[in-house]
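Methods: holo model generation. Sequences were used as deposited, without trimming of termini or removal of tags, and paired with ligand SMILES retrieved from the corresponding compound records. Each pair was processed once, and we did not select among multiple samples. The sequence and magnesium ion SMILES for this entry were:
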Amino acid sequence: MLLSIKNLHASINGKEILKGVNLEVNKGEVHAIMGPNGTGKSTLASVIAGRDVFDVTEGSVLYKGKNLLALPVEARASEGIFLGFQYPVEIPGVSMTNFMRTAVNEQRKYKGLDPLPAGEFLRLMEEKKKMVEITAKLANRSVNEGFSGGEKKKNEIFQMAMLEPTLSILDETDSGLDIDALRIVANGVNKLRSPENATVVITHYQRLLDYIVPDFVHVLFEGKIVKSGGKELALELEEKGYEWIKDAVI
Amino acid sequence: MRSDTTDFPLKNTLINNFVEHGKDIFTNNKESIIDIRKQAYTKFIEQGLPTQKLEAWRNTDLTAVYNEEYDHYYTQSNVIKDIDSVFQCNIPHLNTTMIALLNGWYVYKDVPLKTMADGTIIGSLAEAMKVYPEIFDKYYAKYATSKDDGFIALNTAMAQDGFFIYVPDNVQVKKPIQIVNVIDYDKNIFLQTRNLIVLGKNAELTLVHCDDSYNHQKCLCNTVSEIVQDENSYLDHYKMQNVNNNSTLINSSYFYMKNNARLTTNGMSLNGGILRNNNHITIDGEGCETNVYGLYLMDKKQHIDNQVFIDHAKPNSLSNELFKGIMDDTASGVFNGHVLVRRDAQKTNAFQRNKNILLTDKAKVNSKPFLEIYADDVKCSHGATVGQLDTEAMFYIRSRGISEDSARMLLMYAFCDEIIQKITVEPLKHRLEDMVKKRLRGELSVCAQCVLHCSHPEKEYNFEIDLSKI
Ligand SMILES: Nc1ncnc2c1ncn2[C@@H]1O[C@H](COP(=O)(O)OP(=O)(O)OP(=O)(O)O)[C@@H](O)[C@H]1O
Ligand SMILES: [Mg+2]
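and the model returned the structure below.
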């Protein structure tokens, strides 16, 4: 078992957002999480990644059998967790290259490896840039600064490719992408898939799941996973909308 | 009503010194300069040393500084020591014409004042007063006349030396001129230096001005610079401040600009006990462009006070101010930006921004951008922010595996980078990049050395300056 979430409750400023989430993810699997706006999908992703504005009030998260909640954000990343942000943050003054070099080398340090020599690092950048069809110019700019919505999302996948995570959580990486960009992003994700890692995609659209075919689809509703199924569940949701879930739950 | 300002013994010492050392102070001065000094002296008696009672000094308290005892001296001979052993410039590839002041006095190997091949005159202010009286009659104490600050009057009355630069019409000075103002004295010292820089029509100059101290003695340094820019001249000006934690620098620069003159002045305050920078810019011409930048990195109990006054007196000019600061520990800061757009100054563009990051809840900044506009067809904006490091950005960076410390460093450096990138002298920019990183890591503060030294100079940076250049 790669990730095991049990009865997870999380709140912000005393307001409970997650109200008992249960989720299990194994290596090699792709999970999709769907659900109406504001039900806590991004919150769940943030709590897994370690965002400290959320208080975990109950429940447990085990990752590779370890208590994930005890680890600081950066250690979780070095342990292989990657969060593709719904709203990637702009960081003026920090170049993409410097950002990625620092990230790669700090993760290597965590694993007891020497820093990647500059030449090798640049080769790696080139290779991964090609994979997500990022132009050279983008890589020389400040992190996400002035990037278009689609460019920001591509940039998340680029970072994922650079860091080669074990568990990737992609929060609405498809939203705002044109058809070509969606294909590029999905291809990127698929190329990075292996029996050793797992992917959780959060999405509103069945369309993405045509490209990244999930093994499981979950519906998060009012802070809980209320329904799980195979990929056909996404089709059913597309057809019937969330009203159908509400009716079923209540 | 200002009687309390006269209570400092320092004021009385200075008043007595003026009388006692008048002969030294007036050495080689023409009658007209002596008159200016005497008038300023009278004004200083009236004004005294500024205290927090004055609006412009409300957030900077110099009481403790005034209550120290200082050495004052009015002749040069007893203080000059082996300058070769005192400083070196170790910025790689920074090819400048270097001049130096040691404890306020111009240092030279052969002549105190020289004319370069392009006609530019560089040297000691005291010497220039003697040799070029017509220039002094025209410019000296014509701009630094501020009515509300005793430091200006005091400097005019008593400052004897400093540097003098005169760039004739149509001369574009190729190499930057670098001024190193070294403070190295084994007791507490009170210093006054006076500088005059004149750029003729179409003249161009890059000026790098460094204030450095070499020991931990207390010093109070009152510097006044007058910088005159004739039509279509261009000045690229840098002020580097990196003095010990016992130093108080009062640095007043008066810029005066005529038609189509362009000025960029960039102040980097890396270290110092109390740093006060008065930038006073009079735009008395059309089509002028002024950029005023500042970066300050303060920690411990350090205090920085940046005052910028921009006087738009004529139409069609642009001024752009950007000051950024990071405050750690219990450091405190002040930013007072005042842009005056006079009735005639139509089509003025004036922008003013001050941004601060506070790293602790004990650090503080008092920021007051202020626009005073009497013209109706203008574009002006101002803004000030005081905040912490962006927590969303912190999370984003850390979520990539970067430690909290490194994430903070990245963000702090990125914050400073906006100002550093304005430096057009490449070697200086690279050096500043390096120094700001060191400063942010806390490495520079421990040595309290100069801009040009650091506690652990990297080998490749160790270039001795060629003193034959001085
Ligand atoms: N920083 C915050 N402060 C206060 N409330 C927050 C904060 N972050 C999230 N919330 C609240 O938590 C709830 C869940 O938000 P979340 O972003 O997890 O929803 P979501 O399922 O990802 O929605 P969407 O589909 O719109 O992305 C919302 O009501 C939101 O307003
Ligand atoms: Mg969301």
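Chain A is about 40% helix and 30% strand.
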